[in-house]
Structure formats: structure tokens, C-alpha cells
Amino acid sequence: MRFKLFVVCALACGFMAYVLANENVSTEVEDQIIKTVPANKAPKIVEAAEFVEIPEELKTTPAVKKVDKVSPPAAVAPAAAKASSPAPAAAKPQAKPIVQAAVAAAAPMKLLPVASSRGTDDILTVAGLKPQTKSGALVMPLEYLGELYDVDTSGYNWDPNNNVAPPDTASTAAGGYTITSARLAELRQNFMYWFFDKDMYGGRGDYQFDIHASMTQLHKNLNFQMPFYGFRFNYTRLSLNGYLEFSDPPEYLTYPLVFPIKDWPVKRDPSFMGIFFSKCRVGRIYPTDIDQRTPGVYWRVVRDLMGRTDRFGVEVRERTMWDIRTGVVGADTFVPKHVVIATWKNVSFAGGIDNSLFTTNTFQMVLATDEVYTYAIWNYAVLNWLSHTEAGGDTTKGEGGTPAYVGFNAGNGTQAYEYKPYSQNMVIRDLANRGWGNGFPGRHIFRLDEQILIGSCNKDIDAALLPLTFAPESGNMLGGQVVNITGPCFDPDIRVTCHFDTESVLGTYVDRNRVICVQPFLKAEGYIRFQISVGTQRFKWRGKYFVETPAAATEKIFFATDDVHKKNPNEIRITWNAFNLTSNANANVMISLWGYRETKIEPQLEYIDVIEASLTNTGSYVITPSNYLNRHNINNDMQFGFLQINLTQPDQYSNLALSPILWSRPIPLAWYMAPQWEQKHGKRWPRALCDNWIRADRFLRNFAADLPLCPCTLEQAVLDKGRFRPDRECDKDSNPSCLRHRGAIHCVVSGTPVAQGAEQQCCYDRYGFLMLTYDQMWGSRPRRIHNLGKMPWNEASKVPSLSMWFHDMRPFYSCCFWQEEQAVGCETYRFERRPSQDCVAYQAPGVAGVFGDPHLITFDGTQYTFNGLGEFVLARSTDQSERFEVQGRFQQMPPNYYGQVMATQLTSVAMRGNTTTTIEVRLRPLHARWRYRLDVLADGRKVYFDRESLKFQHFDGVTVYTPTYLLNQSQVVVQFDAGIGIEVVENEGFMTGRVFLPWKFINKTAGLFGNWSYNKLDDFTLPNGQVASINTNDMRSLYYNFGLKWMLTDRDVSGVGAALFTREFGRMASYYSNASFVPNFVMNPVDFLPANRSYDVDRAEELCGECSQCEYDYAMTLDRDLAHFTKNYYETLVNMQTENAQRVVSCGVLQTPRFGRKLSFDFMPGAKVAFECNEGFILVGDQRRECLANGLWNLPEYGYTECLREVYYTRRIAFIAIGIILLVIVPLMLCIVCGVYRYRQKQLKEDPHWQMPVLPRSRAGSARNLRVLNYDPEDDSDTDASTLKKTKKWDLDMNDEDVTSSEGEKPKQTGRRSLRSGSGTELNHDGTAIDDEAGHHDDDDDYDEGDIHTGTVHPAGYHQPLSPEEADHLHQQQYSPTFSGVDSRTSGASSINYTPQAAAQNRFGGVPVLPNNTQYYNRPPSGVPQATAAATATPVRIAPTQLTQDSGLPSPPLPHATSPTPSVQKSTEV
User: Please, are residues 67 and 113 in contact by the beta-carbon 8 Å criterion?
Assistant: First the structure.
């Protein structure tokens, strides 16, 4: 019995020894196998053989035929495709290829003939590679071990298939190794990367002998950061089971495998890269196998490649770099910094029996990273089995069951990518024959850093919507962007159609893995549909392509100065990145000029001229505008356009008949068109262009009323997150140049277009005050067209950027920039067509927010704490016409030192407008925040903002942007068309969300942020509209009776709505929600912390001060960062509400006087603004105005301010003086006239026959009154010469004769006297008052004596005597001895008889006192018959008697006298 037991034990031990012996091949056997050269592998020397020099002391392989020694000529190695540190080839102690013809003349040296497949061409592309054909067994290239030799001075053979590791000495010394293009092509012709089972020091090389069936994995430190699927790791675990893992897998695996693990964190969810995730064991090889390297797992890390100059480092870097650049779209600039090579050679499946160890798979994983981007190359050499026995596979061949899992898992329950259709499918064996990465079947390339992007084609998948991989993912709207596309496997004979939104173009075949499409001119912006069709198939491969507006696109042509904006520059210097076109430095490029206009419905982007037809692609050029003086373009009405640069003959450099196109930003074209405009419009062509625009713009609608009003200060503009965003042209954080707004430090524009497509702009100076066009031409200018355009984008006035430049930027140059600021056109542009809107009626938005543990502050300022677990409504509109929803997800805090924390925090915010795109901003996992802190999802698709052109992204009805100074997406602002803004900020893993609402939503909100009504009593409004009466200090009542009522589900609940969050991996609202969760309801840390934790209470008070929310958060979590940011978020939100609650008082626009300036542009209360005038102008009016506290400017004391030219000022002063005089004289005259009129009316009322005395109008008239004397001979008078007595000095001309007194006194002049009525009024001959009309004879200088007779005057000059009735009436009048007849001889209107007693006394008769030559024309009265008159007629001309002292004054005329005769009378003066 003992013997039997002994035999059994011996047999068992022998069997175990046999198994162990076959598990790992011994070193001696391995060496023997490796050193053995198959007999059928004779050395070959082809015709174009190369010779590589070998040092004489090296031992050669016996199979290599020796040749005579030759000395290589001193030739320089071919230029390297890319070298880290170039050095002369002659200085390098390395092998140099030489031509066969030089062998005879060479010095003696050992040369080894090498059968080479190297070509002489520069093979750096996929087309130059020759993929190897593979079958069921591992087949190596024909030039296998010992056939291709490249031995250096150290004796190492640099054959790519050498199984001995090279010297492991990294070097960064200058003058190191430079790889040639031929050597690079030779390396890239090999399918598998390096892996070694020996080294030069007798070690095992890369072979991991510690990995076997009993220990399936090893921990490996990377010593660098490797990004993977959003996370970043500096270590990994190399597993025998076909994967690299970064965390522990679950204890038990259930097949088929499903990742991520839904039950995480209850069950472990590993992070791994699974090239062939299946239980494996080390297999065996046959002695006849070509590759006799030891079966098992190999591992090699090559670090710090960027600066290495040693040969192995350079070759690893260059081979990996070019394999990735040519194999993956979008990797054109990638340079690996670290490379990891993991190889599973001849591994079998676990659970196999018999000869299953010889059924093996061989595959390799190459990881390359620059610590920002990570790429993986998977090489499947041989796949002979599919699954292990535990997954249902058979025990002999590994067939059946669930095949291996192929894909990636991010871990921690986040996300996973399964490589379909191969993973866990029977077609997994096709992995060795698909992929076609770099032209190799079996090579599959991926990008792994943030998302998993496939770099290889997929032939075996079919679905309605298939993911399309393309790069770049965005391009300029103008077109010309070369888009590399990977997805389906392509065929050169099958047409590929690319569909960009509404435009289709044909693709250009590159290889099986790649097709190129050139983006056409697209009249669109933002994300558009991008689809491709292969052959006759439908468009099932789809993606999203982002169209950049020309004004915001990535700048690719740079202007050294601002000369391009001037109207007559001497030169314009431009630069560009030459590698954006081609890497060939000898390529030629063409520079052309394009313009844009809108003269019809369809937009017109047209070619204008060639600036340079052929230019070497040096990356710089100087444009000389004087070279284009004699151009005569048909489309010379284009005022702005673009520069374009493209290759002239692209097929010579890339073997493709297409070229990328570089576009400049929009530029004005005066530098080119000015001579043509001058010929067309004259030297004042800017004014003509401006006038044309003004006339056209006046026909368009007024858009200013639709725009939101500008905030008054910069602080208010920054806080208005719902309506305004930074302006790219003038941003204090990214572009402070402000070319078209000099003096401004920051501008904001409306985030989304208004209903009619307009855009508001508000600029602020260094003092933070709003700049207005009323003050200067650099002020804020509203725009008719928004930079984003307006749907549909394919019509005039709606094209993004182009229409805005055509309607708003173009006139700025022609009206202001190219003219004076005080030009008429510029003032029309500033004051009428594009005037700034002041902020008098600006209304700051309402603000509410959530932060911390979590704590909420409503729109009305109510503060409370709600630790709900799940998804809740933060704010929603109750108005159906203006709907919006903002929702928040709260998840439980991580445990602290004492255990579970019964509190929650905000981790995600989802929002949507009326019919807009749904936006979700989500907190990334803890270890995934190394690059991006927040994830932004638009309709479930992640979007990123890490490039300048992607900082502002517009979706349907919503604009999303991140501040330009942030690269980690830690702050995201979402703006809806309705003026609603949501800001999400993250710091150290703690989020805060703030909602900004315009005033139109007052009394129209509900949710956890309450009803915005300026009344805190209705903040706790329930979904049914009722108001809950809750004490904010009663957290339990608030939690159950208010907070939980706003919990969301995936179905639509009345008054609450449905959840908007993106659902991934089957996680619905119930996964996050837990109504049974009971948080801590005590707010004061003293009340809920144990007595033995008084230190935590003191620490909370020390950190938080008086902030109760901060104290609560620290006491609950013991997290100092949370406490700090809770306090920060709280103070920020309270300050926002305080700032926005203050009444905005502004005095509004105070217009700058023309030809003058204001010394300050402030218009807030207390501001004092002084004025100055330009040189040559004089300031008129108030020199200073003040803004009063009531929001009004003080009334001017000296008039409104003006600046006048000196000549105009002088004229104004003269006009003012004249005006003052008129203002004084005219009223005075009016008063006199009115007084006289009233006096006359009064006199006429008393005496109807009263006449107004009229004075003569000249001295000649007074003299004539004294010369003319009319008397009646029948009138008796008792006056005589002795009684004539003069007491007045009469007003006589110097030539008039004097009349002296008869009393012998001193001679006195006889003056002018008139007859007046008793009231003093002058009378006519009929006793009536003389009016103004009677004085029309005064202007007659040829006044005749006959004019003084009463009656009519004959046209011939004869006086018509009075009628008998008139004569009788005159006789009845009494005569006054005081006045003589000489006084009655006055000029027409003043010839009045004076009768003291009678109301009307006619004067008649008298002696004329005239010169001797005076003639009289006396005629009988009208009542006397003509015969009698003729009989008694006196001579026609009678010389009057000279009036002397003897003759005296005439007597009064006698009654019924027919003709007065002169008489000698005396007059007495009483």
C-alpha cells in the first residue's frame, strides 16, 4: 500500500514538474533556439544591396558571407526627416550606407551585404509603407534575425527584429544621433514594435518572468502623468489577462462583461485598457517557429523622448510620432514624450488541456503621450483563440462562449467604450485583419486622453447612425479647411461624398483608413450636421462640425501693424504659419484678395485680384499698396474683404490635387481700392462712400428699440450674465487692444441676437464708465446685425460676421475712421444712425443661487439650507409664453474621518429655454479634473472650450461660453434668448450655480429659488401654486413640506416638469434620488457635534467668522476647502444682490459740443463735466455742467455749450447787439404808438373833429411853412406891423430871409407855427385832424405854393379853389390875432388854421413869404362861374410883396372872396 502511495505521489510530482517545465521555457533552451538559424534561410544579396560597415573586432554570424574590406567615402548621410539635434553626419560614429560602386576604391574594412527593401525616396507617408501579410501563425518579415545588420561601434546590431535590447543609456547631449528618412521608413515597415527577451548585460530584457499563472499582474510605476479617458495616472498594472489596469477589478466577473459597473461604489469598477480582456496563461512555441523569443508578457517604458539624442530614443520617438501622425486624424502636431510598449507573446487561454498551450495569441499595445494627449496603437499579430473556459470556451481550442472584451473603461462608474463589433463577438478574430492603421491589417489606433476616438476604419459595423471620426472638428465659415475623415474603410474606386449642412463636396481618397474633404463656403455658424456617404449607401456616418464665424475664427494670417486699417498705408506686413499649408519649405503659395457685398438677396463673396501669384512659402510677405494704383476692378464697390493664401501646385507636395486655404480676419480695403474710389468719387471719396451708406441705411428699419439697455458701469456689465458677454474685439482678459474703441478697456455685447437679429455693444473706459458716441467716435455702437447672424443664414443681412461688417463695421471706416471726428458724415453716423444708448432706464437682473452643503438664496433674498438627495427644480417659469427651467442634482458628500456625512452638494445643473437646446453642466469626477473641471453637454453631447475659436459657442436659442482667461472649464456661463443667464463655477470640486433673470419674469417664477416678487412671504410657493408657511429655521419642516415637493422624476409631473439631465448607462432619476434620505436638520455646530469635538467647533468659528453656512459645512464635512468656498460663494452672491438692488441713477447723455471735447465722460450723480474747444474756436455757454442727485443735469446758466469759429462768434455778438437794440427800441416804439393811439381815441371820443398834430419831417419842410403864406383878402384883421412881436426864435434855414419885428427890436427869425384846435390837435383846412396818410406829400422836394391851398390840386400844377360852401364855412371861423397867415402856410399835412374858440377853423388867405421868382397859379373857387372868374382873374403869375416891417402880417381873409390877394397887414402877438 505504501508503495502504491509512493508511486501516485511520484506520478503527481512528475506531472506537476512537466506542467511547470512547459509553462516557462528555460533560458538555456531559449538561447539555443534564438541562436539557431533555420536551414532554409540562406543569406540573400539582391541587386540593390546596401553595405553596412562593421568593426573588424566584431564576430559575425556564420550565415553571413564575408566580403573584402573597403573604406567608406567621407559622405554625409541623407537629411533626416526630423531630428532632435542635427549634427554633421561625418562626426557621428555610426554606420553609413554607401553605394556598391565605391567598394573597390574603399579602404579595407569588413562589410556585410544586406538584402534591403529600402527605397531612395523620402518615405514618410502611408503610401510608402508595405504592409506584411499575416496568416494564422506569427510570420516575421523576410529579413529576419541575422539578415539585416546595422552594427555601431559599440557592437550592437540595430536590426529592428533583434531580440537583444539596445544600450539603455539615455542621452540629451548635443550632436547626437540623427535619423535618416530611409532608416525611418525601414523601421516603419515592421508591424510589431520592439520587444526584447535579452539585453547586452545578460539580463532578460523586457521579459516579465514574474508574471505567470499564479501571479497574473505586476505593478508598474510610470513616473509621468498619462491621461486616460478623462483621468490621469502615473502608474499602471500589467496583467497577463490582456489589459493594463489602474484600479482593482471586481471580485467576480459575470459574462458577458458590462462596463461601467452600475453598482459602483458598492462593487468595484476598474479603470483599464483592454486589448484582449480574457483570462490567459503563458503558452508554448514550436521549435520551428520563426520567432523564438520567449512566450509571455513584455514591458518597456521609454521616457523623456523630446530631448533625447541617443539612437534608440530618437528612433522610438520618430517612429511612434509618424505612425500616429499618419494613422490618426488630428494628430498632425503630436510629438510623443513618453512611450510604453506592452507585448503579450504566445499567450494561451486559461482552463485549456492537452495541447492547448500551443494555441496562442500574440498582440501588442503601444501607448504614446505628451502628458496632454494619449494615443494607443494595438497590433494584433496572431489570434488563434477567442475565449477561456470560464467564459464558456472549449478546453482545447478556446472557441465558443463569450469572446474577449476589447475596449476601455474609465472606472469609478463613469464611462466605458466597447470596441464594436469585435468585442465579445465571434468576429473578434477579424481584429488581425482589420484596422489598416498605417496600412497594416491588424493595426488599430485610438486616441484615449479625454474621449475614445477611433483612428482606424471599421468595415464590419452597420447601423443607422455610426460615429464619424474627423479632424479638425471646426473650420472657418469661408471654407478651405481640409477635413481628414476616418470611419468606414475606403476604396479608391468608390466615390465618397461629404455633406456639410446643406453643401456637398466629393472626398479625396488617401488610403483605406482616410479620406479628405475640403470644407466649402458655408453660410452658417455653430454646430452643423456633417455626414459622409460611401458609394451608393445612405449618409449613415455622422458627426457634428463646428463652423467658426470669420470675425471669430482662428486667426491664421497675422498683420504686424494696424496699417491695413488705414486709408493710405505705405506697406502692409503679413505673416502666417507655413506648416499650416505644407511642411515642404520649397512649396509656392499664392496670395489673393477677396471682397464681400450685399447688392441682392444672395450674399456675394467674390474674387478681386491676385496680390502675389507665386511666392515661396516662407511665412511672411510685405504688401505694397502702390503696386495696385492702376487697377480697374469691376467690383470696386467692395469696401471690405479678406486675404487668402493657398498652394499653387499642391499635387507636387502632397500627391493630392487640393490645398488648404488660409483666410485673414475681415479687413477694410481702402489700401487697395482708394485710387479707384478717388477716380470715381473725387478726393473726398470717404465722404461719398459715407453719404451713400447713410442714404441706404435710412431706408432700413429702426432696430435700436429692440436692444437691451447698456449697464451704466463696468461692474454692472460684468454682473449681467444673462444679457451681455465679453466682446472679442475689446476684452480686458484676452484682447485689450480695442482698435475700434480707443480708450476703452472692456466691451460687452448682447449674448444672443434679438428677435430682429441686432446686437447691442457697450464699452467702458478706464474709470468704468459707459462710453457714448455722443462724446466721441470710439464710443459704444449698437449693430444692426449680430455677429452670429440670423436664421436663415443664406440671405443678405443675415450672414454671420459678413452682414455685420457690411452694415456696421464698413460705415465706421468710411464715415469716421477715414474722416475727421467732426465730419458731417461721422456725426450723422454717431448721432443718428448708430447712436449709443444711455443707461438711464437700465434695470439690473434678479439673482438667486445655490452653493455649499447646499445653501440657497432666493431672488427675494431668503436664505435657507436644503440637503435634498436627488434632482430638484431650482427655478422655472410659470408663464407659458416665456418658459425656462433650471434644475440641480444633489449628491451625498463623501465620508469624512468620522464616517458617513449626512449632507449633499450640487454636482450638476441642467437648463432649457422655451424651445432651445438643453444644456447640462456637470462636475467631473475627482481624479478627472486635471484638465477640465466641468463637463458641458449640449443635448447629451460633450462640448469643449479649450481653443480660442471655441470659447463662445452658439446653439439653438442659447449661447454658452467660458471666460477667455480660463482653460480648464471651471466657469461656464449659459445665456438664453430671453435674457436668462446661468453661471456655474467650480473650485476644488465644489460647485455653485447662479441664475440671472430680467425684470419681465417678476412674479413668474417658482422652484427652490422661490417666486421673485420682492416679497419674501411667497418664496415657498409649492408646485400647485399654494404658499407654504414655513419658518426658515425649521429645517425639518422646510425639507419635507417644501423642498421634497420639487423633486424631479423622468416623467412629466404637473407644476414640476420632467428631468432634463442626460442619462448614461441606464442611470435614471431614481438612481440619484432618495426620498428616504434623512439629512442633519440642526444648523448650529454646537448643537449637533459631540462635546468631545469642541476643537472642530472652534476651528469652524476661526475659518468662517460670522458665516453660519460656512460653519455648518465645515462641521459636517471637516473639509477646509468646502468651508472656504462656501464663504466665498455666499459673500459673492450677497454682494451681487446688493449691487443689483441699488437704484441706478444716471443723468444720461450730455452731448459733446461740435469742435470741442468733454474732459470727463462720467454721467453719474455728482459728476462734473468740463468742456473745451479746439484751437481756433471759442466756447460759448456754460464751461461746466454737473449731474445732480435726481438724475438730471443742472440747468445751464449761460446757455448750452457750443464751440464757434472766431468769425462766427463775432457775427453772433453783432447779431446779439442788434437784437438787444431791437428788443429795446421796438417795444418802446410800440408803447409810444399805443400811447398815442389811446390818446387819440380818447380825444376823438371827446371831440369827433379832433385832429392829431403832425410835425414836419425835415428842416426844408419847416422852411417852406414859413415861406408859404395863404390869406383871405376879405378877412379883416386888427393887427399891424407895430404890434408884431416875436418871443420865439424860429427855425429857419441860413438862406431864408429874416422877418424882424416892427417895434425896432433886434431882428428875430420868424419860426414855424401851425394852427391847432382847442385841444392842441393840428387841423386840416376843413377843420379835421390830420392823419398819417395826409403826410405823403412831405417827401416831395418840389413842393409848390399852390399845394398849401385847400381843395384839390390840378394835375398840371394848378390849385383848385374851395367851393362857395367851403368858403362860407371859412368866413364863419374866427381869426386869432396871435398867429398870422404866415404860420398857416405849412406843408401839406400840417397846414392847419388855429381857432381858439371853434372846434374846426379853416385857414384861408394870407401873404406868401416866398422869393420873388415864386409863381402862383390862382383859379376861381369851384362855386364861382368861369366867366366871372375869367373877368376878375388876376395874372397867372404875381410876384408876392416882400414881407417887411412896414407891410406886417396879412389880415384874415374876407368872406366870399373868390381869389385871395396879397395885402399889407400887421400882426400883433399877445
Answer: yes
